[in-house]
Write a structure and sequence with these properties.
The complex is a heterodimer of chains A (about 210) and B (about 160). Chain A has about 210 residues and is mostly helical. Chain A has helices spanning about 1-15, 20-30, 35-60, 75-100, 110-145, 150-160, 160-205. In chain A, helix 3 (about 35-60) packs antiparallel against helix 4, helix 4 (about 75-100) packs antiparallel against helix 5 (about 110-145) and helix 5 packs antiparallel against helix 7. The mean pLDDT of chain A is about 85. Chain B is mainly alpha-helical and about 160 residues long. Chain B has two domains: about 1-85, Rna Polymerase Sigma Factor, Chain: A; about 100-165, Arc Repressor Mutant, subunit A. In chain B, helix 7 crosses helix 9. The radius of gyration of chain B is 17 Å and the shape is globular. Classes of the chains: A mainly alpha (about 210), B mainly alpha (about 160).
Chain lengths: ~210, ~160
């Protein structure tokens, strides 16, 4: 290709303004604006938000599990949820740290992109698992609290018992799923924006292997 | 890292800085973006320098870090993108006014390259640097066969952009 040969000739003869040693020294102490740095900060913030919201929701929902009928005390349930939530946080924090450490700028282009995506996906999985477990926790609390509420008891007395429970479960399920769904969609948007270009390039490089 | 490490790094970088300039030439098309990317590559090289063991040539290692920074790590600001768009428009106008000279051909070539995606730009860069398919495969993480196939496709694509 003639044009490419012409370009090659120009490529090797063209000189750019040279940077002095003094300027290089100065650059070494400047802050990087690397995407990986931002991905790290955002991931850590997300993990921390997960930790804080889990602690908050667990400490503020104990009353839901002690029913006001005086007969039922499910206060042991939050303890189980708390233990599971702690295990989830520890597991994903370690996994994220390990995956993040694998990111190395002197890997080949494809490996670097893959490692960044994997580290980021760890946090995304953490958010998914947290939202699901949080949703189950909230739904259980709501179910127990509602099951002794006057409105439900009236429904329970005047209808088939199974139908009353199904209506209650359906309402709780729809409300919780809607709220969690909105949070999930917002998160997906942020996640997508942060990795848009990287995902595009990774797809492009993976296409070459097909 | 010690002062000695810093000094030897700066010396090596100064000697090999043309590699970074060439990466910037492919991935940016204005002076300010060129300088920004140059600085980011320098910072990334410096951060990764402790891992450079000297079993590969410094220049070979620079190709990897430089391209990885340009393709994956570099964050283009909106302000910068706007400036690039303006430059391209001005460039298009001036290119149309030129006669069919070598300079015009070169400008059109650079313009065509800037229309490629990041991966294609990397392949063109490695081609212009006379890297063989083994080196291209090692830098990009793809097989030699795929590197060869993709390189031919990129050349065809460039041809199409230049002769629509």
């Amino acid at each position: 290709m003639d044009e490419l040969e012409l370009l090659k000739k120009d490529w090797n003869t063209r000189t750019d303004p040279q940077v002095s040693q003094d300027d290089i020294y100065k650059m070494l102490h400047k802050k990087s604006s690397s995407k990986v740095k931002w991905i790290f900060y955002i991931s850590v913030i997300e993990l921390l938000i997960g930790v804080v919201s889990t602690i908050w929701s667990l400490s503020h929902s104990n009353e839901n599990f002690i029913l006001n009928d005086g007969k039922h005390d499910y206060s042991w349930l939050p303890v189980i949820f708390e233990s599971v939530a702690c295990l989830i946080i520890v597991y994903y924090a370690i996994k994220f740290y390990k995956n993040y450490k694998k990111i190395s700028v002197d890997d080949d282009a494809k490996t670097l992109m893959k490692n960044i995506i994997v580290a980021r996906r760890t946090v995304k999985n953490y958010i998914t698992v947290s939202l699901i477990s949080g949703g189950v926790f909230v739904m259980t609390g709501l179910f127990l609290a509602s099951s002794v509420s006057p409105i439900f008891l009236e429904l329970y007395e005047n209808n088939n018992h199974l139908v009353a429970y199904l209506v209650l479960i359906a309402i709780i399920l729809v409300i919780t799923t809607f709220i969690i769904g909105v949070i999930w969609l917002l998160y997906q948007l942020i996640y997508g924006l942060l990795l848009r270009n990287l995902n595009k390039n990774y797809k492009e490089i993976k296409k070459l292997e097909v | 890292m010690t002062k000695e490490d810093e000094h030897s790094f700066v010396k090596l970088l100064e000697e090999n800085q043309n590699i970074i300039h060439k990466v910037c030439r492919i991935y940016t098309n204005n002076y300010s973006a060129h300088n920004d990317l140059f600085q980011e590559i320098t910072i990334q090289l410096w951060k990764a320098f402790p891992k450079f063991r000297g079993d590969a040539k410094f220049s070979t290692w620079m190709y990897r870090v430089g391209l990885n920074t340009a393709i994956t790590l570099y964050r283009k600001s909106k302000k910068r993108i706007k400036t690039q768009e303006i430059d391209t428009i001005q460039f298009k106008l001036s290119a149309q006014e030129y006669d069919n000279t070598e300079e015009e051909q070169l400008k059109l070539m650079y313009q065509a390259i800037h229309q490629l995606n990041d991966i294609e730009k990397a392949l063109v860069f490695l081609y212009l640097e006379d890297k063989n398919y083994k080196e291209i495969s090692d830098t990009m993480g793809i097989s030699e066969v795929n590197a060869r196939v993709k390189m031919n496709r990129v050349k065809t694509k460039l041809k199409k952009i230049l002769n629509p």
